[in-house]
Amino acid sequence: MVALKRIKSTLPKLILLLILFQVLINHGPADNNTAAYALETDDVSTEVVYNEKRVYDEAGLLTYDEVNELEAMCLEYGEKAGIEIYILTHNDSDAAYPEKYIEDFEDQLPVGDRVYFLYDVYNSEIFMEGYGLAETYIHSKRIDVIFDNVEDDLRNGNYFEAFRTYIIMSAEYMEDDSELNYDHDYIYDSVPDGFEEKSSKDTYTPNYGYSYHKYDYEGYYRKEALENNILLNFWFQLVVSFVIGGIAVGVMAYHSGGTMTAGARDYLDRSRGGLIGKRDQYIRTSVTRWRKPEANTSSGHHSSGSRGGFNASGFRGGVSSGGRSHSSGGRKL
Description:
The structure is a single chain. This protein is of the alpha/beta class. The chain is 36% helix and 11% strand. It has helices at residues 2-26, 64-81, 98-107, 133-137, 140-155, 159-173, 217-227, 234-254, and strands at 55-57, 84-90, 114-120, 125-131, 309-310, 316-319, 325-332.
């Protein structure tokens, strides 16, 4: 009996200790060096924690040591160049297209001078964007040259070397004033006339031009437009089908009864018919208004939003949904 009483008295204390231990495990202090990656997709929404993390290798392309070395390079070269250098990778089939993927990432950080390199492993595509000062210095022509220098390493699985080259070249371009992009108004759907291609992917001369390597920017916009088309929405189609079905059933029910065969002539006495009087009575006045069509001045221009385009000098860029202008360029590997 004594032993039983002791067990009963100590049992609540043991339970309380277990509860406190569990709380400490689940809600203990967070590691200051960790950061959650954030993007909005159709089903998932996470958050970006702003700190000194620069490499988000969601695709798992790099070893632990390689990530640490690239992190150190991003911070060192970025500090010297006056920008923040980021590396993003993923292998997500449900992720947004590369341009919007980076834009959504950027919009969750404070406004700053940044450059991004994204490797979309699932679609075998690479994409870069420059914000703030990086938009002016690391413009689409220079992005194209960076791609020339990293694409072979990426195809061959030399990911560390490719990202290392990107970091070094981005920092070097921030000190190169030979050709800068000050026009951040990307209003044209295609490259303006006279914007020539460079003669070789291994050479680059300022003011000569470069190649876009036929990257299908428009394909992503067409796909996005189809996804946002209400006519292709399942619930809209379901409602319309119910409405059409209801109308059809109502019409059939209306005509299912007996048919009236008697008409007005069956009740009219033609021998006594005649006009017995007339009068005019005002009922109402009806006014119809219409809007005069306005001249279309948007030909060849984007209406608004984050869809990318080209400026008058042939540089490519866009504006994020958060209103941040950026340079941009992509390539299919």
